[in-house]
Here is the input.
Amino acid sequence: MVGVATDIAKREQTTQGMIIAHEPANHNRYGYVFTVNGKTFNGWAIPLKEDLEIGKQVFVYYDPQDPNENARTDFRESGMNGLVPVLFMLLLAPTCTETRSKPLQFC
Here is the structure.
């Protein structure tokens, strides 16, 4: 997904959308709709920092080649968020490997 988000980030566009649904039982996600070239698209988002409500106008980031690929956050941020766990594992892996090869020591 990181590569896909990075590719989309290079060409992403933004438009206004509107929150049209709320599913509190499904990870508190919100549904939104937006229009590109007269065609309506939709997506789902789980808000991390902002308060959303039905009827609220929101920014939508989308791939102009395929507006079905859309998000409420910048694809550049999505690409970086995908790298964080990878970088964490790369930094932690040598420590875990080294720790496993040694017998447990109790103080």
Summary: Strands lie at 13-23, 29-36, 39-45, 57-63, 66-71. The chain has one domain: 2-100. Residues 80-88 have pLDDT under 50 and may be disordered.
